Amino acid sequence: MQQRGAVGGRGCALFPLLTVLIFQGVHVVLSLEINADAHVRGYVGEKIKLKCTFKSTSRVTDKLTIDWTYRPPTSSRTESIFHYQSFQYPTTAGTFRNRISWAGNVYKGDASISISNPTLKDNGTFSCAVKNPPDVYHNIPQTELTVTERGFGTMLSSVALLSILVFIPSAVVVALLLVRMGRKAAGLSKRSKSGYKKSSIEVSDDTDQEEKDECVSRLCVRCAECLDSDYEDTY
Question: Is the pTM of this model over 0.70?
Fold first, then answer.
């Protein structure tokens, strides 16, 4: 009798431990991990993406649901702005009406959304909730969105970057031209010092160039004379 009592006592003592182990096993099997950026910064009028990813131990089915909610910084009231279950259901009311779009892929564990034409009034806390039965246990991450106007510093940095992209290639081209001109001048100086005589081809090229310059000068003089004659005729 005492042995049976001892065995029974041990069984009763092991029962809570088995219960804890079984609960932990179920907890692991039915877990759903969701991740989102804690802080997101955006600018007025520029599209903002709120990232949200999830990892599920179960296969994605048409029972999977995604819900995004928004809470203003000065209120405890939350409003639903997006719902997904096989199809996308962005909000059709409130301040986010026609401005929320789907930017995720449930088969890749992506539950992200985008906000079009953000304003300063969109500042607040956004929550991403995902359910994929039988994975029922999950966390709900929150994202603090801060929307601001683009400042002078940001605009200046963009202008500076553009200036650098334009200035550097131009400076390189000018430097190459200067080097080439310097080499050419040095070559001519050496030739003149050594009593170098031009070949017949070089002489003919120089003659042709002189004739072209003379023709251009004559043409300019003739045009000036024509203009003077027209001016005198008018009077």
Answer: no
Question: How many residues does this entry show for the chain?
Answer: 235
Q: Which two tokens stand for residue 121?
A: 């009034």
Is residue 69 exposed (0-12), middle (13-18) or buried (19+ Cβ within 10 Å)?
Answer: middle
Q: Taking the CB of residue 106, how many other CB atoms lie within 10 A of it?
A: 21
Between CA 34 and CA 137 the distance in angstroms is 10
Angle at the Cα of 138 from the Cα atoms of 134 and 140, rounded to 5 degrees: 140
Burial class (CB in 10 A: 0-12, 13-18, 19+), 43: middle
Phi first, then psi, for residue 228 (nearest 5°) are: -65, -40
CB atoms within 10 A of CB 100: 22
For 53-101, how does the pLDDT look when each residue is reduced to its tens digit (9 = 90+)?
A: 999 999 999 999 999 999 999 988 999 999 999 999 999 999 999 999 9
